[in-house]
TrEMBL record:
This is Ribosomal RNA small subunit methyltransferase A. Its EC number is 2.1.1.182. It comes from Qipengyuania spongiae. The keyword Secreted does not apply. NCBIfam families: ksgA (TIGR00755). Keywords: Cytoplasm, Methyltransferase, RNA-binding, rRNA processing, S-adenosyl-L-methionine, Transferase. InterPro entries: KsgA/Erm (IPR001737), rRNA_Ade_diMease-like_C (IPR023165), rRNA_Ade_Mease_Trfase_CS (IPR020596), rRNA_Ade_methylase_Trfase_N (IPR020598), rRNA_adenine_dimethylase (IPR011530), SAM-dependent_MTases_sf (IPR029063). It catalyses: adenosine(1518)/adenosine(1519) in 16S rRNA + 4 S-adenosyl-L-methionine = N(6)-dimethyladenosine(1518)/N(6)-dimethyladenosine(1519) in 16S rRNA + 4 S-adenosyl-L-homocysteine + 4 H(+). It is found in: Cytoplasm. It comes from the Bacteria. CDD domains: AdoMet_MTases. It is an enzyme of class 2 (transferase). Residues 32-206 form the Ribosomal RNA adenine methylase transferase N-terminal domain. The lineage of its organism: Bacteria, Pseudomonadati, Pseudomonadota, Alphaproteobacteria, Sphingomonadales.
Amino acid sequence: MADLPPLREVIARHDLRASKALGQNFLLDEQLLDRIAAIPGDLGDSAVLEIGPGPGGLTRALLRAGARVTAIEMDRRCLPALAELGEAYPGRLRVIEGDALAIDHDALMGEPYAVVANLPYNVGTALFTRWLGGQEWPPRWTSLTLMFQQEVAQRIVAAPDSSAYGRLAVLAQWRGQAKLAMKVHRSAFTPPPKVMSAIVHVEPGAMPEGVSALALERLTAAAFGQRRKMLRQSLKGVPGAAEALDTLGIEPTRRAETLSVADFVAIARELSAGSSAR
Ligand code: SAM
């Protein structure tokens, strides 16, 4: 195993003061980082895509776990520290300078890959929506292990009949399994963010037959756009929705948050079948 200097020393030597604009909150506790790198399971010789490695704490843990890491970082200041890390693990770390939102991850990786990231929260949610909303299923990524604000993590894994349940839960759960893998106290970060964090782990599941991702997206946008209203009202602008509820025996007086993910999938299936018939 490579003998590496403490992360605090790397940060001081390269003058990597955390930038608020880039959402930088670094993790420096190597034991915690090893526990995070273990969440996806055995990474021995697996390809891993890390977004936002910063000074490379999580990157080290992934390399220690045996992964071959491709890391996308947009802060140039971090590149020399990452280059040093690459020297300690020859041929196992590829660093790409750039904005992860502007890069085609499948083309970059060229093989199935696990995603592991501690990202700024706004970038994390945008990428999460993209990874889970893709037309191609199963996706090229084999799992997503991502840090979020705890409140967002709870929305991703939420069950029906809870205030956290909404579009994110349906998006994450309709063709995959999402679990809250670890809570991370704000004091674990340097500097500490204002809120608590949690790591979500998602694995892709089977694609339900006859459902278009677009139909489901439109349905949940309408249903949760007016979550306090009855479905009869909130789905008024969705062609075929009233008939779909009727066919499935779902009371139009119910509200969106009482419907299971399977209910949404069933309605979207009816809508998808209806729109191809129209
Ligand atoms: N992974 C490191 C850790 O756990 O200590 C750093 C985490 S810090 C919360 C987020 C990192 O993502 C920063 O290094 C930041 O520069 C980088 N970043 C922010 N936006 C990005 C983007 N759009 N593409 C790539 N990297 C980004």
